[in-house]
Amino acid sequence: MSRFSFGMPFGWFVVAWSAELPPGAVAKRNFFDRELVLFRGETGEAHVLGAYCPHLGAHLGVGGKVEGDSLRCPFHGWRFSGQGDCLEIPYAKRIPPNAKANALPSAESGGVIWAWHHPDGAAPSFDPPEVAEFGAEGWTADWTKYEWTVATHPQEVTENSVDWPHFHEVHLMSPPPERKVEFKGHEILWEAATKKNVTTLDGAEDEIRVIGRNPGLGCSYVRYTGMGESVIVMGMTPIDSESIRMFFGVIGNKAGRTDEEMAAFHQSYADDMAVAVQQDFPIWENKIYRAQPKLCDGDGPVGDFRRWATQFYVTTE
């Protein structure tokens, strides 16, 4: 029996870093309890399809080839657009009706390829995030990237953004004396300020302020100010009902540092952020979900968060 009674949420989810999919590339992925294939056509647009050919079921990501802005099946040569339409069958005069690969809505922004997952196939109801600092002058050119597979659920990860008391117990940070949160449509807007010791920089004390946005349950992006100015993107993409692939990326403002100075500082600073994320893993992987928790007056707005989260499920309990 699943630890999580609420099923898989819908929304935008990270399926790859942009740099992983150059023009003409094909990649296999396993998300949303299904096989997917990603490809990038010659115009540069990335696409996401269900992996199996509607003809006789070949996996389009194993031997499939990009031609122009389409993907050709390795088994019988059927060719599909990024929207899943069958464009050509090399040995047939007529394309069968409804000969269509299952396409997921996709988008690309901030160095990330996003896919929209909805269990009923409904169209996107909001946009994936934009990160203005990505590619901007004075910032590191690409994400410093980390990835993990974690036995948890996107809602459990997102709930951390309003769970302030755990800062001290899990992350050894001062409980944030300044904090606020707003539930606004499909987003959570949150902010906290505290102190911490940077483990990768000889334990130096850092006064930090984090300003975060969570557009749905699939991702978070945070503007992080302390010793340096950074932006974090974090994706929580379901593999199945019990596990996620977590994508974590950091870019930094050079703030007048040379490339050499920035490379050393930024890597250490980002590594410390990644350490903080990993500190949550033993909790997430071994806890159960309490539908009716016994909350106290020092807890964050867990109840408000959970009511907000219900909008991302087709059915709720």
Q: Which terms would index this structure?
A:
317 residues; mainly beta; Rieske Iron-sulfur Protein; Naphthalene 1,2-dioxygenase Alpha Subunit, Chain A, domain 1; 2 domains; seven-stranded antiparallel β-sheet; four-stranded antiparallel β-sheet; 5 helices
Order of helices and strands: EEEEEEEEEEEEHHEEEEEEHHH
Number of strands: 18
Based on the coordinates given, report the CATH architecture of the largest domain.
Alpha-Beta Complex
What is the top-level CATH class of the largest domain?
Alpha Beta
Distance between the termini: 15 Å
At CATH level 3, the topology of the largest domain is Naphthalene 1,2-dioxygenase Alpha Subunit, Chain A, domain 1
Q: Mean of residue pLDDT?
A: 94
Q: Strand sequence of the main sheet, in spatial order?
A: 12-18-17-16-15-14-13
Sheet-strand content, in percent, reads: 35-45%
Instruction: Quickly count the domains.
Output: 2
Shape: globular
| Uncertain residue segments | none
Radius of gyration, whole Å: 21 Å
What's the tally of helices? Answer: 5
Structural class designation? mainly beta
Biggest β-sheet: count, sense, barrel?
A: 7 strands, antiparallel
Helix content: 10-25%
CATH superfamily of the largest domain: Naphthalene 1,2-dioxygenase Alpha Subunit, Chain A, domain 1
